[in-house]
Design goal:
The protein is of the alpha+beta class. The protein has 19 helices and 48 strands. Helix 16 packs parallel to helix 17.
Length: 833
């Protein structure tokens, strides 16, 4: 028999004196009702004992929380009688953050030192003692004290930030990042339960799924570990596995605890990433029972799996070494984004929030999310939802931007953590790539670490030995890549563009975004450009009145080094160097972010199949902040999201400058041939009239790209400031402006607007009388709960576009149709006269 008992209710939180004292704010706290799963910050916030860390600069006053010891306590009274009847009772902690001592009735039953692991402690004896119901205490040591103590013993190692995040197995970005707050948490952050069982239980099930080369057979090898107790140690047991109509069973003789159950499914429906096919998932059920007829069912395990093969193709060629993610033998054009924890307090992320973010990613055309190494292994919900929606997952092991010690006690924790993560995530069809770290190999090569390390270990033993060994042993069906960026080969620079994966940060840090076109990566695994969040998000997090680009709250919600300076220099290159008012600054920086990623992704995609993918930084945020995200910390889509939806479309046309002249590149990421007539026109921006035009019948092969040279009469403008090249017949129109915005002759925005209520929505139709560039409807300024279905719309004179404002029926039409809600570039760059 097996029974589970939830222990997430009835907790109290108190500060614990350490060496005779606690920080002053903690000393004033009595017992606080605690929410589990949760953390100290959220408990104190929920009870009104601290100010919201996301508001203004409140974060700065809360550093004492991470320097305090904390106790969570509850009694174990009222347990079901079946607990006492079980041969074994375990306390199962799915997530303790981070360094904790666990006690039952005052007796220590276990210790933890890793946020990224679960723990199981035998509490049978502690519960069997007579007397009143025992207390369950989880006492957390200060994360700072533990990490700084390790740093003192092990010696200081270089990292991106002056925080001790590499000396504790905890979410690194808890200690702050260039997009995240410093909120060093403690707490029971995932569920905690009692597990009462007898005879035996399923300790782990690790299914290895593959498909035969001709796709006629699907194979599942379920590697099962059993734990026995009491008389069960000497009993024969039966394991049964079922999937897709196939069933197999094996008998475990007395004392045996491991078995492999092999199943074969004929002609399985294959799982594919979005855009390549369907995502059929099949229930895999493993049951444990006693041997013989009519024996009791002891335990059950169930997950949904998908039949597919995944691989990384990295083969040398005449230009270097490629990198391609393959599914079922097919190279996938990766249209990806990096994923960070969706909240600085991860216990607040539930299935509904995961679903919203993953659907936002899917609707933007994304087919891969890279779970970044400074965050966490996400919950089952994340991987399940990705599997359902056809989103591939690239999973970093949790190391980022630092030299990591390879000493104990951390070394053992790293391997234990990796083993659990691989086993836990193995069933998920979406999981495609294991990656050793984020930027650490690159950092060792280029960031001055070698001199500071002076020969000391820095983490290479993890990335080149421990982790590949664990993956090879436990999950040989998936590829392992040592790091991102990484280049294979002796003596090859880890961020070499012609080899493997590349990170491109020169654009954000030093160069104009047009420099993306100077790069030719084989796989662009990180690159991005900043912009502030939606106005409603920023206004909700900053009480400055008025808001300005440099007001204190706005600057506090900008964590990047010289972030606002880089935004200003980016604006100066395209819109002029001036002191921008807030409304113009907010709009134009968002436009610039969308333009930057558009330039990069269009260029990289135009080189397919040389470059096999882009993973932009980043899809989401963990709090309200100026950052590289396409979806801000409140879940609102920035203009960048709409730009991604266009450049990540299945079929796309772009205009690309080359040494031979302008070319139109047509990308067809579908299984069908694309036949169309492409119309190119060089137009007068004042009237929209075609000055020259040409038509081209084209056929683009499935999963292919075609380059169409732009005839010289169209590629060479007579008046660059007054002309534009358009490409039609390709779905959404492609544009090529011959001059930067600063040099274009923009007219004062003139247009007619009609509004119409349609159920709960509002339709807003804009009819242009002059060229209008990058129209955006910032309806969150009027109602934070509504949004528009499109953005960054450019219209020629006498063209129209209808925005649908979802949930906007009650909005004031007059406010909707004027600045700062309805905006275009013309509003700020009108040519005099």
């Amino acid at each position: 028999m097996t029974s589970w008992f939830d222990l997430c209710e009835g907790w109290t939180l108190t500060a614990v004196p350490h060496e005779g004292s606690v920080p002053d704010p903690a000393a004033a706290l009595g017992g606080v009702p605690a929410t589990v799963p949760g953390c100290v910050h959220t408990d104190l916030l929920d009870r009104g004992l601290i100010e919201d860390p996301y508001l203004d600069d409140n974060e700065d006053g809360l550093g004492w929380i991470g320097r305090t010891d904390w106790r969570y306590t509850r009694t174990l009274e009222g347990l079901d009688p079946s607990v006492g009847a079980a041969e074994r009772v375990d306390l199962v902690c799915e997530g303790l953050d981070t360094v904790a001592e666990v006690r039952v009735g005052g007796r220590e039953v276990g210790r933890t030192a890793n946020m990224h692991r679960s723990y199981r402690f035998d509490v049978t004896g502690a519960l069997a003692e007579g007397g009143p119901a025992p207390a369950l205490d989880v006492v957390f040591a200060s994360p700072y004290r533990y990490a700084e103590g390790n740093r003192e013993r092990m010696g200081a190692l270089p990292g991106a930030y002056d925080e001790p995040y590499q000396y504790i197995r905890k979410m690194a970005c808890n200690f702050g990042w260039d997009w995240g707050p410093t909120v060093v948490t403690s707490g029971i952050w995932r569920p905690i339960r009692l597990h009462a069982w007898s005879t035996a239980r399923l300790a782990s099930v690790r299914p290895l799924v593959s498909v035969s080369e001709d796709a006629s057979l699907g194979r599942v090898s379920a590697h099962v570990e059993v734990e026995r107790t009491g008389p069960g140690a000497d009993l024969p047991l039966t394991l049964t596995a079922t999937v897709g109509g196939a069933t197999t069973a094996v008998t475990l003789g007395p004392g045996r605890t491991e078995a492999v159950l092999d199943l074969v499914v004929t002609a399985p429906a294959l799982w594919w990433p979005r855009g390549h096919g369907d995502q059929p998932l099949h229930d895999l059920v493993v049951e444990l029972s006693g041997a013989g007829p009519r024996t009791p069912l002891l335990d059950t395990w169930q997950r949904r799996i998908g039949f597919r093969n995944v691989a990384v193709r990295s083969e040398p060629d005449h230009e270097g070494t490629g990198f391609a993610v393959q599914v079922n033998g097919r190279d996938v054009l990766v249209r990806g984004a990096n994923w960070i924890p969706d909240d600085a307090f991860p216990s607040r992320i539930g299935r509904d929030r995961y679903r919203e973010r993953i659907e936002q990613a899917r609707d933007a055309g994304i087919n891969l999310l890279r779970v970044w190494g400074g965050g966490m292994y996400e919950s089952e919900d994340f991987y399940e939802l990705c599997s359902e929606r056809g989103i591939l997952v690239w999973q970093d092991f949790l190391f980022a931007c630092a030299a990591y010690p390879e000493d104990e006690p951390l070394a053992s924790e790293v391997e234990a953590e990796a083993r659990e993560a691989v086993v836990r995530l193995a069933p998920h069809a979406s999981l495609a790539v294991w990656c050793g770290n984020n930027e650490n190999i690159w950092g060792h090569e280029d960031w001055g670490w070698k001199e500071r390390l002076d020969g000391r270990a820095w983490g290479a033993g993890y990335y080149l030995d421990v982790l590949p060994r664990v993956v090879a042993e436990l999950d040989p069906t998936r590829p392992y890549w040592p790091g991102s960026p990484y280049s294979e080969g002796e003596g090859v620079h880890p961020n070499a563009p012609e080899h493997g994966t590349m990170h491109l940060w020169d654009v954000w840090n030093q160069e104009d975004y047009t420099v993306y076109r100077d790069h030719r990566p084989r796989f662009a695994a990180e690159f991005g450009y900043q912009a502030p969040p939606a106005h409603a998000t920023l206004r909700g997090a900053v009480t400055d009145d008025p808001l300005t680009p440099t007001s204190p709250g706005v600057l506090h919600h900008q964590k990047a080094e010289d972030g606002n300076g880089k935004l200003a220099r980016g604006l100066a290159a395209h819109f002029g160097d001036r002191e921008w008012e807030y409304d113009d600054w907010h709009y134009l920086t968002q436009v610039n972010q969308a333009r930057a990623l558009t330039v990069g992704i269009e260029h990289f995609r135009s080189t397919w199949p040389y470059c096999t993918g882009t993973v932009m930084w980043q899809i989401n945020d963990c709090w309200p902040v100026t950052s590289w995200a396409a979806v801000d910390g409140a879940g609102r889509r920035k203009p960048l999201w709409y730009a991604l939806r266009r450049v990540y479309a299945d079929r796309v046309a772009t205009v690309q400058p080359t040494p031979e002249g302008l070319v139109v590149v047509l990308g067809n990421d579908t299984d069908e041939e694309w036949t169309t007539e492409v119309t190119l026109a060089r137009r007068d921006t004042a009237t929209g009239r075609a000055l020259a035009a040409s038509a081209h019948e084209v056929r683009v092969e499935p999963r292919g790209a075609l380059r169409v040279p732009v005839p010289s009469g169209l590629a060479e403008p007579g008046e660059p400031a007054r002309e534009v090249l358009t490409v039609d017949g390709v779905g959404e129109r492609a544009w090529w402006f011959f001059s930067r915005d600063l040099d274009l002759e923009y007219r004062k925005p003139e247009f007619d607007v009609e509004t119409r209520v349609d159920g709960s929505d509002l339709r807003v139709t804009v009819h242009a009388r002059v060229l209008l560039r990058d129209l955006v409807l910032n309806v969150d300024r009027l109602d934070p709960g509504v949004s528009a279905d499109s953005a960054l719309v450019t219209l020629l004179p006498d063209e129209s576009h209808t925005f649908t404002v979802l949930g906007g029926a009650a909005l004031d039409p007059g406010a909707v149709t004027r600045p700062p809600v309805l905006r275009c570039v013309n509003d700020t760059l009108v040519t005099p006269g």
